[in-house]
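Q: Predict the bound structure with uridine-diphosphate-N-acetylglucosamine.
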Amino acid sequence: MKKLEVFGATKLKGQVRISGSKNASLPILAATLLSNKKIYLKNLPKVKDIETMILLLKSLGSKVNFVKNKNIISIKNDLKIKTFASYNLVKTMRAGILVLGALLAKYGKAKVSLPGGCAIGTRPIDIHLKALSDLGVKYKIVQGYVYATAPKGLKGSKIRFPKISVGATENLIIAASLAKGETILSNCAIEPEIKDLVNFLNKMGCKIKWISKRTVKIIGCKNLSQISYEVMPDRIEAGTYLIASALTEGDIKICGIDPKIIKTEIKILKKIGTNIKIKNNEIYVKGNKSIKNIKIKTSPYPGFPTDLQAQMMVLLCKASKSSIIKEDIFENRFMHVAELNRMGASISIKGNTATIKGNIKFNSAELMATDLRASVSLILAAMAAKGKSKINRIYHLDRGYEQIEKKLKKLGAKIKRTS
Ligand code: UD1
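A: Predicted complex:
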């Protein structure tokens, strides 16, 4: 099994360019199933989850080709798309469930594996299914599969999500794009990745409009056009490098991301004493020796993202006093805590709240990664610790961070992959 060896302590220095967003690419790839015209996609990150989504599309019958050194892909859907998404492909990546809305909208039926639980929580899809049934979908769940049909086609409706869900908002926007008539979705997630999906769909010819902060109106359409679309940059990757520089007392420049979409993260980092300057859309971030403690909670966008909670926790171990992080999105997203405590951190958990003692100096250690963002938090802690750390089970990391070793090495980190 592959491992990462990290030799600390390092102060990161230099420039890093942010890759395309994984969480924007996944729903956009699923939404390509709505069209039979050729679609070109640029700026997809080369990470495992994207490979898995492409395999899923190919298993359904999509023709996917790489153009120009794999930077651009073209997708064209065969006229005979299968409507069966197998467990093998959906089990490793929850976003596989996003093909459900597209298949139902285009073909009126789908058999899609339930994504199942995962390390960070049970992650049900009840909100997706209830909202799809409001569009006229009949479904049953048998032996781990959702069998869904829309015998009379999808019909527009007024739906209020009972809870803000990124995936359910995406699945429903995709499904309603081809439904008959008008759909109004309220209490939507408004993550920038959802706005990117809407931009992509509208460019294909869909009629989607935000009518208030969390409400979107979709008028079903029939004819979609051939398009080329560039996926937005990855704000979670950008946030990870911001925190990495703050933690290692680094001095780095982050390019290729609109600072406006990570406003909350920048504000919080500034508040605890990180020097951040924005010039010509580039972010200059300089870490300080001492940082202040803070109390934060994760929440849907524009709040602080759960996908940066683990990384932020590592940084707060350095604060002058105790900090508090409340995890309000997932019930079990503190898997990194035990490993960080083995490195010398002093973090205690009560329910969904972590208390992080400050003034910690990390020790190097042999570590086990448990999920995508937990993996990267261990790399951060290892870069701040003196000596050699080994991180096992790094396949989680490869699901979502493009060329992380290469990028960190360029910033001066001593990191290598071994088997
Ligand atoms: C997406 C992101 C993930 C991020 C998360 C929250 C992708 C591919 N993944 O995941 O990186 O951490 O948003 O920002 O974009 N829930 C239900 N029933 C449902 C759906 C969700 O109870 O039908 C719950 C979930 O268990 C969770 C909360 O709602 O507690 C939010 O989940 P959701 O926003 O749906 O996350 P994902 O779309 O799975």
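A: The pocket of uridine-diphosphate-N-acetylglucosamine is lined by residues 23, 26, 94-95, 121, 123-128, 163, 165-168, 189, 306-307, 329-330 (CB under 6 Å).
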